[in-house]
Specification:
single chain; 318 residues; alpha/beta; inorganic pyrophosphatase (n-terminal core); Diaminopimelate Epimerase, Chain A, domain 1; 2 domains; 12 helices
Length: 318
């Protein structure tokens, strides 16, 4: 594990820096990426700093990517934020640079890069970037940087509701508020849904399978998405909906992709579910993970495994 000082020293060495994050980015991926890029540009205006990856339509209000050419990678420092494993990096040219740095808060099951800083106690990667800035005399936390990082923290803590929220998280957020960040505007933007997404939330309660243990499953297949005129990105936005039910302890949502496979979203309010995700081409946090199921049979198998995890948790009285 490297220190903040070592990572900052590496940043200072390179004239061209490319910052990447994971595929299908959430607010923390975008916030930590844009926040880090902005603070580096402020401190070192002569450096060329690029943010790569594919845009997410529903989050363009927060950040958009830039075009990064093959030539840009030559001799560049590449920093990957908020991405636990290499297959999820949203630009598979990440190794084409001269040096690779990983900054993350997910369990470090797959270390990669020439330098890495991983803090699994952090609420978000955006919180880590805020700490990186705080450790340096050259990097300055400004209102613009704080805007991105606040959005990232709010996204990964569920507006400070999830267990990952700590006293330190609130202290960091307090610094952003002191700088005048429009926190209400960010919160309102994140809370915004389209009429189609609102209708899907209603459908979730109709199609949700709830086991007596408290495990639940919702399958959002291609037929349902066509019926509601939704794309996969819009369907992914309702992942937290089952958690509002008192009968549900842990749940998974299966969203069908264009190739017929299913993107699996796993969430929990107690039982650890990331080991289940790892067994099915995924991973993530103990209480929030993602995986892939090749077909409905695998979706059903994963639900059986989730039921056992929740049942064992209940029997232990944890």
């Amino acid at each position: 594990m490297n220190s903040f000082a070592e990572i900052i020293a590496t940043i200072k060495k390179y004239d061209r820096i490319i910052i990447l994050r994971h595929q299908n980015p959430d607010p923390d991926a975008l916030g930590s990426q844009a926040g880090l890029a902005t603070v580096i540009r402020q401190a070192y205006p002569d450096k060329k700093v690029l943010i790569g990856g594919n845009d997410t339509e529903g989050l363009k209000w927060l950040s958009t990517a830039q075009k990064v050419s093959a030539e840009d990678y030559q001799g560049a420092l590449v920093i990957v934020v908020d991405t636990a494993n290499e297959p999820r990096i949203d630009d598979q040219r990440y190794n084409d640079g001269a040096f690779l740095v990983k900054i993350d808060h997910h369990p470090n099951d797959e270390p990669y890069g020439d330098q890495l800083f991983v803090n699994t106690d952090a609420s978000s990667c955006s919180e880590i970037i805020a700490d990186l800035i705080d450790s340096s005399d050259e990097l300055q936390l400004t209102k613009k940087v704080a805007y991105y990082l606040y959005a990232g923290i709010v996204g990964d803590t569920g507006r400070f509701l999830y267990p990952a929220t700590t006293e330190h998280t609130m202290q960091v957020a307090g610094k952003f508020i002191a700088l005048g960040v429009d926190t209400a505007g960010i919160n309102n933007k994140m809370n915004e849904v389209s009429l189609k997404q609102a209708k899907l939330q209603g459908f979730i309660y109709d199609i949700l399978q709830i086991d007596d243990s408290g495990a639940a499953l919702a399958i959002i297949d291609d037929d349902l998405m066509k019926k509601l005129n939704l794309n996969q990105e819009e369907a992914n936005s309702v992942v937290s909906t089952p958690g509002r039910l008192k009968e549900v302890c842990s749940w998974m949502e299966a969203v069908q992709k264009d190739d017929g496979t299913f993107r699996m979203h796993l969430r929990s309010q107690g039982p650890v579910i990331n080991e289940l995700a790892k067994r099915h081409d995924g991973g993530g946090h103990p209480l929030a993970s993602g995986a892939t199921a090749k077909d409905l049979d695998e979706v059903k198998q994963m639900f059986k495994e989730l039921i056992k995890i929740v049942t064992d948790f209940n029997q232990k009285g944890e």
